[in-house]
Design a protein that fits this description.
Blueprint lengths: L1 H32 L4 H6 L12 H9 L2 H32 L2 H12 L10 H10 L6 H24 L4 H9 L4 H12 L1 H17 L2 H6 L8 H9 L6 H33 L3
Length: 276
Amino acid sequence: MKKGRRFGDIVSNVYLILLAIVAVFPLLWLLVSAFKSSSEMLNNPTKIWPIQWTLENFKTVLFTLKFTVNIRNSLIIAGSTTVVAIIISSLAAYGVVRFFPKLGNVMTKILVTTYMFPSIMLVIPYAMVMAKLNLTNTRIGLMLVYLSFSVPYAVWMLVGFFKTVPIGIEEAARIDGANKLQVFVRIVLPLVSPGIVATAIYVFINAWNEYLYSMILMSSSDKTTISVAVKTLEGADILNWGSLMAACAIVVVPSIIFFCFIQNKMAGGLSDGAVK
């Protein structure tokens, strides 16, 4: 029996290692190719390891093509969207759980139904509304669009986390003299911080990677996000694969590094929120 278990463990480990290699290889190839010269990529595109490492692709993307402006736009829009969405959704989710749970459960389900419709179906209504409000080609307008998608899901997600907070802890704090706002800020929020972190990461990554509405609502090159800027490289008359690889690496790598640092807290938050 022990030999059979050991053999099964070996087979499982080998299988998982192979899956990990398959999953990591595209990212590894992207990163390594970003350090190749354009001539080397054209002459031998299938070779993984570069003959000579170079930073010219990153210099071209950041300084010649001025992707630093697009990165700044994405950071401002995605960061602002995340902060505002977490503030609104935290207050809404807490109100749903503590003040009107029955009606709140119905409302959260209705909010989640907005995700049943594909984004492309709402492009024309959003464009018309933003045009009437004179918010086209503005960061605030794009942020409002992102909030309309992020807040409903964030509320639905945080409701599960707030349900895990025992009501007795809040009652004890009220007896000690804390008001409702103090109870929420000092008692409840620290207890659900893993869930807030998990939700914030989801909102930030979605806003960082979003392409459709940023392309439609933003017409100035100095206000477009990094995802749209990367896409413009594909439409060039002569496609520079080195610059494209470097731009993709700049977009992908920060999210991966950030996710690796907080993955334990995020996994804990998701598991805690699953407890009803």
